[in-house]
Structure formats: C-alpha cells, structure tokens
Design a protein that fits this description.
The complex is a heterodimer of chains A (296) and B (808). With 296 residues, chain A is α+β, with helices and mostly antiparallel strands. Helices cover 36% and strands 24% of the residues of chain A. Chain A folds into three domains: 4-54, 2-Layer Sandwich (Uridine Diphospho-n-acetylenolpyruvylglucosamine Reductase, domain 2); 59-174, 2-Layer Sandwich (Uridine Diphospho-n-acetylenolpyruvylglucosamine Reductase, domain 3); 181-291, Enolase-like, domain 1, CATH 3.30.390. The chains are: A alpha+beta (296), B alpha+beta (808).
C-alpha cells in the first residue's frame, strides 16, 4: 500500500503537513516521535498509517526548562531517559524521574517520548498517571493556534484523548511546587523485568497542612485501573482533611473501588487488581506523605 | 576419505579473512583475560601450543561471532530467487475439514505454489518422532487451533501472507477436549483413531500397602503444573534449496539434523543420499526444536517450485503450534517412619499430551523411571497416564517432565522434614542414594556424589537459617529459604543412543573434528574440541568442530537429555586416541621407525630421540594426512524392557541440590528470588565457563517457570501467544547472586570423568522456591506457576481472611 513520509522543519510546518496528510488520507496519517507504540501497533496489524509525519527531530518539542511561573516545561518530544536523568526534574519533580525510571526497559526509555506516551493514552501508561497527579497542563498546537488542556481532562476513552486529529502536543507544563508538598510514584508488575500486561501504577502529589497534620490537597492518578488512565477524583476529595493511617486507608480503599474498574486479564482477576491498586495507592500516599514532611 | 574442507553453504558463522579478524581476536582475548581474572584462574591462555585444557575456564569462541552479529541464523540467510513460505493454520481446536478452497489465494500476484495436505501421497503425509501420527498439513481433520493446513510460497512474505488470508476452510466443529480428565471420560469425543489415551504406564516395587502401613507419617498432596512454552528467542526457521548436485538441502535451527534428514526423505520420497540437513546457529531450543516445524513443508515446496524457499514462524505461531511442556496433575502419597526413613511412595500422574504424540511417551517413561529419585524407597507405585487434548502437542522440554516430578517429590520431602522436626538436609541424607543402590527399575548406581551436594549446601543453609531468624523481614517483606534435590539420568531413556566422532587433519596441521550432536547454544562444540584435543595430545587451537550436518557426521542422536558432553564427549575422547595412534603410525612410517618409538603428546611428536612440532609432523606425513581419519564410537549397553520397566535405562546419573532465598510481599503475594546456591555432582567439569552458564541459566529458567510461565488456555486457544503476556524471568529477575559448587567426583564411564549437566539445575528450583515461601509465609504452594494472585489468595486463606476482600 502507498505510504508517505514527511519530516517538517518546524512545529508550525508540522501542523500544516499534518492537516494536509489527515485530509489526504481521510484521517489515516500518524505522527512519529519515538515510534515505540506505533511500531508495536503496526506489527500487530492494529494500525496501518498511510502518511507518517515525523516530528522526532523538531527542536520546539525538545528541552526541559523552568517556566516563568516557577513551574516546569517539558517538551513533548523529550525521551523518557531525558526525563529520568534531568537535574531540573530531579530537583523539582522527582516523582517524574521516579516514574520514568519504571518505564519498560532501557531501550524503550531511550526511544520513547513522554509526549508520545501521553498521546497514546494507554490505560497502562505511566506518564499519563503522573501528569494527572501533578495537575499538569498539556499545551497543543493546531491549525487554530495554541490550546491548553488540563491533564485531568485529557484522557477521554480507550486510546482516546482530547486532542484533535490535526493537533500536536507541544509541551507538558507543570505548576510550581508548593510548600509542604510530597509526591511519589508506585507501580506493581508481575516481574521486575519489563512488563506491560498487568501493571498497575499510582501517582500521588499532596500537600500537608503542618498545623493539623492532615492532607490539604491531593492529586491522584491510577494506571491499569480502567479503560483510560484514571483521575481518582472522588478518592482525592475523600483524602482531604485526613491523616494517612490504617483507618484512613481502609476508607479510601472503598472509595477507590467505586471509581476504578481494572480489566480482568489472562493473569489476574478484577478483584485482585482492585486489591493491588488499593495497596499500591496506600504505599504511594504513605511515601508522598513522608516526603511532604509528615510522620507515619 | 579426505576431510570436508570447503566452507559449506550451511556454515554457521560468516567467516572473514584473518586481517578482519585480528581486531576482534584482540578484543576477545581481553575479555577472556578479564573473565579468567574474575574466576581467579591462574591458567595459561588456550592459545597455540597449549594442551590439556580440560577443566580450564575457557570462554567459547563462538561468542565473538554472536556479539558481532556474524552468527548465521536461518532467518538471516538470503539466496537469489528465494521464495517465502507462510502457513494457513486452523482456527478451530477440533473440527472436521469439509472443504479447502485456495482459488483466490492462487490468484494473488507473486504466489508461486500453494500446497495442501491431500497433494502429498497418503503414505508420506504423516511424520513424528516416535510414532508417525502428525500430518505435515492437516487433511480431513484438525486437532488444535494453530495446526497447519496449507503452505503457500510466494515471491515476497507480504504476498504469501495476503494469500493465506484468502484461503477458505470450511469446518464442521467437533467437541473440544480441554483436559486429560475430559479426554478420559467415558463419552468423550475421540481425538485419535486409537482413542484418547497416549500412554498408561505403571511400575511397582515392593508392597505399597505394607510400606504405607509401616509409616508413622503419611503425606498426601496434589500438585498442579500448567502448560509452558520453551520460549526460545529464535523462532523455528529454515531455508531449503537444491544444491548444484541436486541434493535437497535444508538449513534449519534444530537440535537434531539427522531426524529432519530422515523425515524430509520420507515426506518427499527422495533417497536418503539426495537429502542434506545442516544446522544453523540455534537461538535457544530447550527441547522445542526436535519436532518438525518448517522443514517438511519447505522441502515439498522447494521440490514443487525448484526454487529456494524460506520460512520463519511468527511469535504467535511459535506459541500456538510448536510443542509445549506437559500440563500435569500429580497426586502423591509419601510414607516415612518417625526417624525419617522413607517407607512408601505412591505417585499418580495425569498428563496433558496435547493433540499429537511427539515425545509424550518419552516424558512419561522418564517420569516413571525417576519416581522417588534420588532416594531409596523400598515400596513404590508409579502410575502415569497421558491423554490427548485439543491443545498444541506436548513434547520434550528441559528435563522431560522431571522438574514437575521433583516439584511434587521435593515439596513432600520438605514437608516431611518439617513434620518430623528434622532439617531438610538431614531427612534427605537419611534416604540419599549412594553407590550400589538401585533405582526403582533396578539399575545399580555408581559414582554417586549426591551426599556431597548436601554437604556443600548445609553450611550455607545453616548460616541463612540463623540470618533469617535474626532478621525475618527485609524492606517489609518476609524472608525464607528452601532447598531441593535432583537425580537425573543422562541420555535417551532405555534405548541405545550411540555417538560417534571423526577427526581429519591436513598437511598444515589443521584438525577437523566431526561430531554427531549439534551445538544448540550450550557451547558443546567448545567442550568437544577440548576433549578431542586433549585426548589426541594436540593443542586446542588446531581443532575445529563440525557438528550438526547430517552428511558430515553420523546420526548420533539429538543434543537433548543432557547427553552431548557425556555421549559425544566419550566419542570425541575415543576418536582422539585413535587419531593420535594414526598420526604416530604415519610418522613412524615416514621415518621408517617402529610405531612404538613415536609418541604424540603436548602438541609435539617424539620421534625416536628427536622431537618435532605437530605441524612439522603433518608436513612430514604430507599427502598421507588424507588417509588419516580418527574414529570414535561410544555406545553404552543401555537396555530396558519398557513393558516391565526393568533394565539399565541410562548410561549415568547426575545429582544435585539447589537452594534459594526469597522475599515475599504478603500483601500482594509477590515472590522475589534474591539469591541462589547450587551444588552439583556433574563429575569432572570440562569447561567451567560453559557449565556455570548452564547452571545459571537453569536457575533463572526455573524461577520463571515457578513464578510466571504459563500458556493461558481459553476455549481451545492459547490466549497469550506473545512475550507481552507470556512472562518469563528477565534480566532484572535474575537473583543478585548465584553461587555454584561442583563437588569433586569422577564418573568412571565419562570422558575425563564428566557427566551431563545441561538440564539439571532447573529441576529443583520450583520446589526450592515453594519451600522458601513456606519458610517465609507459612503456606505450601502446590501449583505452578505460583503467580502473585495465587499466592495472595493462598496466604489470605491460611490467615482466615476473606479471600478477596476486594470483591464487591
């Protein structure tokens, strides 16, 4: 089958080419950044793009810098490995480095990009969970200009995002860290080596009220717990004003069960996966709480 | 007969000139030095002029080719005018084929040949290892989803794939048999014309009931092991062509080229001398490359088209169509007196043989023969039933079933130790086999150093017990240790399986050693070169081993059953002696001396009072070197009456004990194997680098099979036919430490005292892990794999918690 390939020189050109390509192929054009998931989907014959728009070398999608408001800007084209090893990330958002360290394996970390992974919206993906917890803003460029989408509104369905077919995710913008903040990332996988099928991941960012020793605010994202990366809205609310401990976690477990629906798979039942999600959530919240300066 | 000097088209490595090699040789020697320093081996380099290398830790010379991508895997060999073959496979687990319509497929541009089973003459349609029961291509019935029905050869892989999708097969579904229990039901649908039972084997010694009556303790358990895949990285792959002399040549990754040689001749109707099968570099086998996968179809397509034809199975095809490890249920009763003496063992195995026979009977026979090993038990009953089901055929896999028998036996030994308040080492010692003990089928043992493996593990066991008693948890996880043992017969079970070797030399002093059993990635070519060189008295660097070519070596059986070092090693040893004698005689003749005045040793020939180098000696022999052909055949008297289960089924036995330390995350049910120790009686270790590699590999494979590996079977299909969902141990799952001990022993029948060691370290690992979990968390897993959910539920149940308080 005929297949085209373009490598635009700028992001603006990339948007233009993407528009043209989508129109020409009736929506069967595809961006290429790291090409990891794309390769897998093509090998499994789940995807057969007719026009590849290669954005892997665009300078505008690169770089990790502090933003004006004291937050952080991560180019969507940054490789997982860059996120894992960035000193800026380590200093301000260590949870992202912790998350990136857990991604698949070295070869994939060296190729795959954080933006590509977010746009894939795989329910098992790790970066989506982290950007939900961190309340990141996802900035996209399309023919109508720039659009900022809150990460919590980004994931719409199984492999479905808020992004239009002609939009390109440009960068991930993280709000500035706050006082008494703690964040952590936790992951369950059947084995230590690269695992994909039944992973369950939890990202937590919370702030602690030093006066009451309670959770003041919390962001909670879960992977492998439903059809999309999950924003555990209700559990977040329930955590507020509580102090992490056995009693708290017993309650949160019930709340969490109401808003996740892990898919049973060849390895594990849905019940067991719910249980695992609750355990990983507990451990990750505990870790974040300790990092915020809270005592166990 | 002159030696086969020319580089054959099946040459396993793409050779280069010496200049191109130089850089890599230097790199290689740098690595070798580093390894030797790490191993503390103060030994000379195995470079020119070094003789007597047996026992030296020598890195294999094939690694150089492999790390540089110069190893020739079958899938990478290209030939001009080559066709690509793809298979249409059954989508039904059990069905009659009503109609196969290939009209549309044949019309696809680029399609050159479409082959159906009915086009093969009826007397040549069936193939098989022991019984010819497996169609090359299914004709009127399919027995499992994944069974090949049509083979298509086309100019491109894409054209072949497109054509496969256009083949229409009409089925009449038949009831699907999912388990041996279903297969044995009175009203079960019959899978095979001869019924659903593949084998029903029974052997008894002593008086079981009396033995159980004598026992103070009788344990009764059921153990379940699910179906597993060999999970080799390289999928079955081959290339077939007609050479200029019209010989049908198959290059293929295999454990047994001579088997394919005979099968290809059978299926094509060609005389044996018109066929050649040459092994390519094998990327993992583990028993899964001993049955037909692509060979016969490629041969037929090449004959049909006159063109080279290649095929490589996709990963999905590997999981759904190649042989598997037998799923088994083992019910076992073990009786012992209160001082720990075993009095009785009753074993009842129900095994899932899949859709065709493959090696099912060999696995069954081995399981019966090994019942109770490595212990003395006076009263034993072993009953093994294997039945057909509508899943891929179960065949040979590392240990031929003994890893499962050991999971049951060793778990019960550990439970017995606990019941009696003895250490697991002590309870084993009280029953351990020694020289002159007999196996349950009456074979008398010799050179048994099983006790010594227990002695080697005991201090580590005692130290770890103390360590864990002082610190029972680490990072919130419960710690535990467990051990298990093995006894394993080397080679075929109860049939003669000779190995041969031949050695040739040219006037420049280059030596070729042609050995019958192929190197399947274990480094056996290196070990055989070491044995042949030492036996002949020449330097290792002169010897190049040719193996795996059905026309350059005799049929010496497959590389399987841990047999190559022992069987082909013995042949290489005998061959080396013969070669040495012939060189001595030829030099004597050239110098006109009596033969006894000439001696070849240390790579030099002592001629009367004179001493000349080996090369000089060969130059002296000159054209006479063409007459020299050392020959060695090792054919131990192995004979067993399969019906009565009596006789001497194995040429020797290997023993060992493995121990592991685990950490258990009880809240999740996850097991981490953090350290492992092994002690083996492998006789003399020929090459410690290779041997340790085999042991480490067996431990890691054992961890995967104990914790994760499982072919998920759903409604007649394998539901996880890819590495994404078929989990095995990866690099990060390897224990931080694997410490290997080889106890000092020499097998009087082995080459330089060696036994086989390839499969053995795997055997005790699942039982050792189960016992370590018991130590850590107080539960006895009796199911493989012990995945996280399984263990979580087991622990929850034991603690009286609701099994899944996550539910509803």
């Amino acid at each position: 089958m005929d297949c085209r390939y373009s490598r635009p020189e700028s992001l603006a050109e990339a948007v233009a080419v993407l528009c043209e390509a989508q129109e020409a192929t009736e929506g069967e054009a595809h961006l290429v950044a790291g090409g990891v998931a794309l390769g897998i989907l093509m090998n499994e014959k789940l995807l057969a793009p007719r026009w590849f728009v290669d954005v892997s070398r665009l300078a505008e999608l690169k770089g990790i810098e502090a933003s004006e408001d004291g937050g952080l800007r991560i180019g969507a084209g940054c490789r997982h490995r860059e996120v894992e090893r960035s000193p800026l990330v380590a200093e301000r958002y260590a949870i992202l480095a912790e998350m990136a360290a857990e991604i698949a394996c070295g070869r994939i970390k060296n190729r795959g990009t954080i933006g590509g992974n977010i746009c894939l919206a795989d329910p098992q993906g790790d970066p989506p969970v982290a950007v939900i917890a961190l309340r990141a803003t996802l900035r996209a460029l399309g023919p109508k200009g720039t659009r900022d989408i809150p990460a919590t509104d980004f994931f719409k369905g199984l492999y479905e995002t808020a992004l239009g077919p002609d939009e390109i995710l440009q960068e991930i913008r993280l709000p500035p860290p706050q006082a008494n903040e703690g964040a952590a990332f936790g992951k369950f996988s059947a084995r230590r080596a690269m695992d994909y099928s039944s992973t369950i991941s939890v990202a937590v960012r919370l702030t602690r009220d030093p006066a009451s020793e309670q959770i003041l605010e919390i962001g909670l994202g879960l992977g492998g717990s439903g059809e999309t990366p999950i924003w555990a809205k209700e559990t977040e609310k329930a955590f507020i004003g509580r102090r992490p401990g056995d009693e708290c976690f017993a309650l949160m477990r019930e709340t969490l069960f109401a808003e996740i629906e892990p898919l049973a798979d060849d390895l594990y039942s849905q019940d067991y996966k719910r249980h695992v999600a609750a355990v990983i959530m507990k451990r990750t919240v505990e870790k974040a709480w300790q990092r915020s300066g809270g005592t166990a | 007969m002159p030696g086969p000097w020319t580089e054959p088209p099946g040459e396993k490595f793409a050779l280069e000139d010496l200049e191109a090699q130089a850089h890599w040789q230097r790199e290689y020697h740098r690595i070798v030095r580093a390894i030797r320093e790490e191993m503390g081996a103060d030994l000379p380099e195995a470079a020119e002029g070094v003789t007597g290398t047996v026992g030296m830790p020598l890195p294999r010379n094939d690694v150089l080719y492999k790390v540089r991508g110069r190893a020739r895997y079958a899938a990478n060999i290209k030939m001009a005018d080559m066709l690509h073959c793809r298979f249409v496979r059954s989508e039904q687990a059990h069905a009659r084929i009503l109609r196969i319509d290939t009209t549309q497929a044949e019309a696809v541009p680029g399609v050159v040949a479409v082959l159906k089973g009915e086009e093969i003459p009826p007397d040549r349609r069936l193939i098989g290892t022991l019984t010819q029961d497996t169609p090359v291509l299914a004709v009127d019935k399919v027995r499992f989803a994944g069974e090949p029905i049509v083979a298509i050869a086309a100019e491109t892989p894409e054209a072949a794939e497109a054509a496969c999708l256009l083949v229409e097969v009409d089925y009449e579904p038949l009831p699907v048999i999912h388990s041996p229990e279903e297969a044995l039901a009175a009203d079960a649908e019959t899978i095979d014309a001869e019924g659903n039972v593949i084998g029903d084997l029974l052997h008894e010694i002593g008086d079981l009931e009396a033995g159980l009556a004598q026992a103070d303790v009788v344990l009764e358990n059921e153990y379940v092991v699910e179906s597993m895949d060999h999970a080799f990285l390289e999928p079955p792959s081959g290339l077939c062509f007609l050479d200029p002399e019209g010989v049908l040549t198959v290059l293929v990754c295999t454990q047994y080229p001579h088997y394919h040689h005979k099968q290809v001749a059978r299926v094509t109707g060609l005389p044996l001398e018109k066929v050649r099968v040459s092994q390519t570099v094998v990327g993992g086998a583990f028993g899964g490359k001993m049955d037909n996968a692509v060979e016969c179809a490629l041969a037929l397509l090449t004959l049909r088209t006159g063109r080279p034809t290649t095929a490589t199975l996709s990963r999905e095809e590997v999981f759904t169509s190649t042989t598997k490890r037998h799923a088994m249920t083992i019910r076992q009763k073990l009786g012992a007196t209160k001082d720990g003496k075993l009095t009785a063992l009753d074993v009842e195995v129900l095994s899932d043989g899949g859709a065709y026979r493959s090696y099912s009977m060999i696995v069954g026979g081995r399981c019966v023969i090994h019942t109770g090993m490595p212990y003395r038990i006076p009263n034993v009953r072993s009953h093994y039933v294997v039945a057909f089901t509508n899943y891929p055929p179960a065949g040979a896999m590392r240990s031929f079933g003994i890893v499962k028998m050991a999971f049951a036996m060793e778990s019960q030994m550990n439970e017995l130790a606990e019941r009696l308040g003895l250490s697991p080492i002590e309870v084993r010692r009280r029953n351990a086999m020694v020289d002159d003990d007999k196996t349950i089928i009456g074979q008398k043992l010799w050179d048994v150093a099983y006790h010594e493996t227990l002695d080697a593990i005991e201090p580590i066991y005692e130290r770890l017990r103390r360590e864990i008693a002082a610190e029972p948890t680490r990072n919130g996880r419960k710690r535990g240790i467990g051990l298990a043992s093995l006894g394993y017969g080397i080679g075929y079970s109860g049939v003669r399986n000779p190995s041969t070797a031949r050695m040739y030399v040219d006037a420049e002093g280059q030596v070729l050693a042609c050995c019958g059993t192929p190197d399947i990635g274990t480094g056996s070519d290196m070990s055989l070169a070491m044995i042949a060189a030492q036996s002949a008295g020449i330097s290792l660097h002169r010897v190049r081993v040719i193996s795996g070519d059905s026309t350059k070596t005799d049929d010496s059986g497959p590389t399987s059953a841990s047999r190559t070092t022992y069987f082909s090693g013995n042949a290489a040893y005998i061959c080396g002696q013969d070669f040495k004698r012939q060189i001595e005689e030829a030099v004597a003749k050239a110098r006109d001396l009596p033969a006894e005045r000439v001696r070849l040793e240390d790579d030099r020939v002592l001629v009367g009072n004179d001493s000349i180098g080996f090369e000089e000696a060969c130059a002296l022999i000159g054209e006479g070197t063409e007459e020299i052909c050392g020959y060695g055949k090792f054919d131990p008297d192995i004979a067993m009456d399969i019906l009565k289960f009596s006789g001497n089924p194995y040429a020797t036995y290997t023993f060992g004990t493995d121990m592991v330390e685990v950490e258990v995350d009880e809240e999740l049910g996850q097991i981490d194997v953090v350290r492992a120790w092994t002690a083996h009686d492998a006789g003399t270790v020929i090459n410690p680098v290779g041997t340790e590699g085999q042991i480490d590999g067996g431990v890691v494979m054992g961890i995967g099979q104990a914790l994760w590996e499982r072919c998920v079977r759903k409604d007649g299909v394998i539901a996880n036919p890819h590495y994404r969902d078929y989990l095995m141990a990866g690099a990060k799952d390897v224990p931080l430490e694997i410490e290997n001990t080889f106890v000092e022993n020499k097998d009087r029948t082995g080459p330089y005292g060696a036994k086989g060691v390839a499969e053995v370290s795997l055997i005790p690992i699942p039982a050792a892990i189960a016992s370590a979990v018991r130590h850590a968390s107080g539960v006895w897993p009796n199911h493989l794999p012990m995945d996280a959910e399984y263990l979580y539920r087991l622990i929850a149940e034991a603690r009286g918690k609701p099994v899944a308080d996550a539910a509803e």
